[in-house]
């Protein structure tokens, strides 16, 4: 609230000083001041009303998007779909006659992050459809909740299905699960470094942004009231329904979404296959050579060579 109101003042103050300071320190000072002010106002608002503090946290969470990419740095867009809230940019890779995979990137990112996996899947004979999620990359959109993003993917990407598999990286795993619950047709589901539920993702966001600890207990209730659905349901019921048609992949050294999240997913789907990779983290896993081998084996692309971790073992 205070940050949103005072942002123009902060910007003008920083701009007035920029000629007397080097750009790098000035930018760092601006970011530091921005972070402190955002923490201050959410702490102040939570002290007055925890529900109002949770509303502000959700407001900011749902408006977080990937940093703008330099002009010319983005991949060519194959389809632009006009929606009721903006436009959805979709890209394709691979032979149209091959097995179809819908690949969904994570929160605070765009499809450029998953390009290593797009390339690897294409080289292994898959047809990959990979959109920028609403509000990210080339997909301009009004701010919306995760559930709304999942519905948009289900509605507008269905024309490219049915899919042999939907793959979601990070929070894209949750959006994939929501889309499947909204009617998207796919035979299998793969999560890569995904949180177990939207609740755990929201709680991680609160910790990351230095929000008051008491909001950890309020955020789910606020989401349920404001969005008319429970954040606990996003993911859990879908994972349990897919069972042996679910592959859970995680980096053992992931510090952004801890590997314990994968263990929790497998607990809800005991028949699921699980794959834990070393020598990679939350992002570098997308270029790990064993990643595409495991996915291809799971989808029957070639004889299974990956070693699955039994549910009982995790």
Automatic annotation (TrEMBL):
Residues 101-224 form the AB hydrolase-1 domain. GO terms for molecular function: hydrolase activity. Keywords: Hydrolase. It comes from the Bacteria. Gene3D superfamilies: alpha/beta hydrolase. The keyword Hydrolase applies. The keyword Signal does not apply. SUPFAM superfamilies: alpha/beta-Hydrolases (SSF53474). Pfam families: Abhydrolase_6. PANTHER family: MONOACYLGLYCEROL LIPASE (PTHR43798). This is Alpha/beta hydrolase family protein.
